[in-house]
Amino acid sequence: MKIAVCVSHVPDTxxxxxxxxxxxxxxxxxxxxxxxxxxxxxxEEALKIREKDGGEVVAISLGGDANKETLRKALAMGAxxxxxxxxxxxxxxxxxxxxxxxxxxxxxxxLILVGKQSIDYDNLQVGGLIAEFLDLPSVSVxxxxxxxxxxxxxxxxxxxxxxxxxxxxxxxxxAQRGLNEPRYPSLKGIMxxxxxxxEVLDAAPVESRVKVLAMKKPPKxxxxxxxxxxxxxxxxxxxxxxxxxxxx
Length: 248
Ligand SMILES: Cc1cc2nc3c(=O)[nH]c(=O)nc-3n(C[C@H](O)[C@H](O)[C@H](O)COP(=O)(O)OP(=O)(O)OC[C@H]3O[C@@H](n4cnc5c(N)ncnc54)[C@H](O)[C@@H]3O)c2cc1C
Prior knowledge:
It is a single chain. By secondary structure, the chain is of the alpha/beta class. It has two domains: 201 residues, 3-Layer(aba) Sandwich (Rossmann fold), CATH 3.40.50; 30 residues, no CATH class. The protein is 28% helix and 27% strand. The chain has six helices and eleven strands. The strands form two sheets. The chain has a nine-stranded mixed β-sheet with strand order 9-8-7-10-6-1-4-5-11, with helices on both faces. 33% of the residues are buried. The mean pLDDT is 94. The site of flavin-adenine dinucleotide has 33 residues, from helix 1, strand 4, helix 3, strand 6 and helix 4.
């Protein structure tokens, strides 16, 4: 089984985002970047399938040299190979997905795992776009996955229920939290990952369709106002809700 896992290199959830000098992207200075949490479920699922059915797991990331850190994390978890599709600069989800799909055309995986979303830009698009470019089916928000006889049966988390679906391989599966418990890389895994080569290829040049005009921090929340205590405060509260907040 040839399994490709897409991994994005994202600021960790503790990051206090600062807008960069270009006014359009995150200022990377002092930011701790990590393997996108939803992609950890993807890597873990790929490793479990390989342990059960055999095969090869390849981790793929598109971006700059910094993405090697994230690829090494996937190798340390147990991925067999890692590929950096080198591509700096402006790339929207369309361009990221198309460049990855171009690479996957030559690799011809049986299964492509992506995370439900990349926690930096939260477009939730790349998985579906890769499937479209490869003319493959895709299943998103997957919390359970079984493979048998060239088909997958998957449980998708939907509002108030789980949808059980069946798809013929090859296909794209987007991992949701709860699909599995990602393993922590062992010390041995981390050491071996340091020595494993990362194949670096130029990402296929694709023009972005979505142009980022600006990145702005949300306006600072106005501090709350204490208008008094008990029922005595009601008239002033009503006046403020009517005259200032204009909600009544
Ligand atoms: C320097 C820079 C410039 C940018 N310029 C633009 C721009 O001009 N226009 C614009 O719209 N956006 C731009 N972006 C945002 C960029 O498009 C997103 O970072 C990228 O598409 C991934 O985020 P997403 O929300 O689309 O992914 P999602 O669709 O939320 O990701 C879903 C899954 O796809 C996979 N995936 C996503 N990104 C990658 C990746 N890079 N490598 C491997 N797998 C991946 C992962 O498995 C992820 O879990 C820029 C980002 C950077 C860092």
